[in-house]
Amino acid sequence: MPKPRTARSTSIAGLLTATSLVLALSGCATYDVTAPADARADAPAAAVKEKDARLAADADGKNGAAKNSAGKDGPARDGGGAGPEVDCRKAKCVALTFDAGPSENTDRLLDILKKEQVHATFFMLGKNHVDKRPAEVKRIDAEGHELANHTWSHQILTEIAPAEAKRELSRLQDAVHRITGKTPRLMRPPQGRTDGEISRISKELGLAQVLWSVTAKDYQTNDSALITKRVLEQTERDGIILLHDIYRGTVPAVPAILKELKKRGYTVVTVSQLLSPAKPEPGMVYRP
């Protein structure tokens, strides 16, 4: 049986990290926070059994192909990313995520990820991104990456009315579904700012909240070498890397980041793969 979770009453001071990860709150808020490793450990027995069966099938060569008969990437068995089953209970995993796209740089990024056989989670914006670049959204999905929600127009959800916050999230959900036929299960609140009310809204919309442990602050620099250095300095097992493909220096940094992570023994995965055998729980905040 999974361990029972208790709601945490958390202040701003308790949520600051060395990577400037912030859950900005008004006073205190009550909501659930868990780390990826804890989520895996708490996964229901049925989910663990299902995961182990898939791993065994892959090992037997019965279910290990990442391509379907049409030669396209197969479906994501963990709900995020294609390819062979990954067991982050044993592998040294780190999740790769990109915020605020798609952009004019997204196709180049997807080319790199395809070449390196890596899948990522894309927390997409609606206004001037998803609505202007449906072809990129379709490609992200078609190539086995994970579709996720970063709101419609990047408003700080904790600073607007609950009804408006819900619209920010639901409008993006609807747009992605119209384009791909799929509805995101993950969301990242702008600037990482969440509280009890946003958690309630997220749960209502079927969205788990995903924060991060690694940031290159690529919004401050176009120096690809510096972006690479910052990512590698902060990355640890079960971490979540935050990058933005909208900035000029970020995509050129990705090949070096992936090369060095592989050299250090990391398996780069989507957020859902990192959590598996657990499934993303609506309303929950996942923070390494």
Walk me through this protein's architecture.
By secondary structure, the chain is of the alpha/beta class. It has one domain: Glycoside hydrolase/deacetylase (TIM Barrel), CATH 3.20.20. The strands form three sheets. Strands 4, 5, 6, 9, 10 and 11 form a six-stranded parallel sheet that branches. Helix 3 packs parallel to helix 9. The longest helix has 19 residues. The N terminus is likely disordered.
Give the CA-based shape.
Answer: globular
Judging by the overall fold, what is the CATH architecture? Alpha-Beta Barrel
Termini Cα gap = 23 Å
User: What are the secondary-structure elements, in order, as H or E?
Assistant: EEEHHEHEHHEHEHEEHEHEHE
CATH topology: TIM Barrel
For this structure, what is the CATH class? Answer: Alpha Beta
| Number of domain modules | 1
> If you compute it from the alpha carbons, what radius of gyration comes out, rounded to the nearest whole angstrom?
18 Å
The average pLDDT is: 87
CATH superfamily: Glycoside hydrolase/deacetylase
- How many beta-strand elements? 12
Uncertain runs are 1-28, 63-77
- Structural class, by secondary structure, is alpha/beta
Helix content: 25-40%
Largest sheet: 6 strands, parallel
In what range is the share of β-strand residues?
5-15%
